[in-house]
Design goal:
By secondary structure, the protein is α/β, with parallel strands linked by helices. 32% of the residues lie in helices and 27% in strands. Helix 2 (114-124) packs across helix 3 (129-142) and helix 8 (257-266) packs antiparallel against helix 9 (284-296). It starts with 18 loop residues before the first strand and ends with a helix. The structure holds adenosine-5'-diphosphate (ADP) and magnesium ion.
Length: 348
């Protein structure tokens, strides 16, 4: 990683950064107005989002994701810490110019037509009428709404509204797109459509930062992930490094005592399934060695299957949550504490 840092020096004009977003101990403590009780929504987050990445901030509802992005965009004032966008202090208005934002649960006025809404937001960001006209045609086509531009928004489905929201966020050709739960409430086909549009953008060098409570969304789309739990960063890293926790699952039958002892000495995990023993070894080389010694011991090799752990596996590993809780692809509730020991195994 570069040694260039957004937090050095005074003159942000001349600053450069390899990161679209950089935060340093960013914290938000909400205080209730009457009792004055303090609640930590985001607990000192330090995060780096490389330019050009597809970064997913994953967490259960209430984990602090929306508060985090609102602090980046100065919609919420941090209690402590700093943030910068492309090397520029996030408190400066100019820092937000290269950013497109799709808020969570956005509500566009329903009397707008799709094109009218885009024109309104384009004007807000200072685009000329001619630029807006051109860009609206381009964007309606990009998000698959080219025949819907003149239709009032109240007739749009949830998926169409999200795609229009995406077009809104893209009006001024941002270099960073911040999307808060972009596919919430959208059906699977609509999700895929949104994902395809976003994939097209990253080829053009746009950095995408998305908040999501959906494991599957982050797993299928993002190349970097951070998991937020109760305002704390539970894990962060490059998806490819996290998911290369590969192993080989070997299933063996006719396991006598000698074979049992051998398995115990070689396996990283072991499970008895009816009349077979299923165990995992970390590499194909070890799988071959295990197979040789077990066959010599009289056991029968039933199957050998290479595996890669999924983000869900990793999530369960760091939280100790049950698989059932994640069955709908959502992050389970935030009640368990993070198992620090398990976490260290996958943390970058
Ligand atoms: N304006 C606010 N005042 C007090 N508490 C808030 C406010 N906004 C959010 N919270 C609380 O902060 C926590 C994090 O909320 P949020 O950032 O919306 O999480 P997420 O986006 O991950 O669902 C939640 O417990 C929420 O109730
Ligand atoms: Mg949220």
């Amino acid at each position: 990683m570069s040694s260039r840092c957004a937090f050095k020096g005074e003159n942000s004009e001349s600053m450069t950064s390899d990161y679209a977003i950089e935060t340093d101990g960013l914290q938000k403590i909400y205080r209730t107005r009457f009792t004055g009780r303090a609640f930590t929504a985001v607990a000192g987050l330090t995060l780096r989002v490389p330019i050009g990445s597809k970064f997913g901030l994953l967490g259960a509802n209430g984990a602090g994701k929306t508060t985090f992005v609102k602090m980046l965009l100065s919609a919420v004032r941090p209690t402590a810490g700093r943030a910068s966008l492309f090397g520029r202090d996030a408190q400066e208005e100019e820092s937000r110019r290269p950013v497109g934002y799709l808020p969570e649960n956005h509500r566009f006025p329903t009397y707008f037509t799709g094109a009218g809404m885009l024109d309104f937001y384009g004007a807000l960001s200072g685009m000329s009428a001619a630029d807006r006209k051109r860009r609206i045609v381009e964007l309606l086509e990009l998000v698959g709404l080219e025949t819907w531009g003149d239709v009032r928004i109240k007739k749009y489905s949830k998926g169409m509204l999200q795609r229009l929201g995406l077009a809104q966020a893209l009006m001024h050709k941002p270099r960073l797109l911040v999307l808060d739960e972009p596919t919430d409430g959208v059906d699977p086909a609509g999700r895929r459509h949104i994902r395809d549009i976003l994939n097209g953008l990253t080829g053009a060098g746009v950095t995408i930062f998305l908040n999501s409570h959906l494991l599957s969304e982050v797993e299928t789309f993002c190349d970097y992930v951070a998991i937020l739990r109760q305002g704390h960063l539970a894990l962060e890293g490059k998806m490819s490094s996290l998911l290369t926790k590969q192993g080989v699952v070997i299933t063996v039958r006719d396991v006598n005592e000698q074979a049992q002892r051998l398995i115990a000495g070689m396996a990283s995990t072991t499970r008895v399934v009816e009349d077979a023993v299923e165990f995992t070894v970390p590499t194909p080389l070890e799988a071959n060695r295990s197979i040789d010694v077990l066959r010599a011991a009289g056991a029968t090799i039933y199957s050998v299957i290479p595996t890669t752990s999924s983000l869900e596996d990793i999530f369960i590993e760091i939280t100790g949550s049950s698989r059932n809780a994640g069955a709908r692809g959502e992050i389970p509730g935030a009640e368990e504490t993070v198992a620090a020991a398990a976490m260290s195994g996958v943390h970058q």
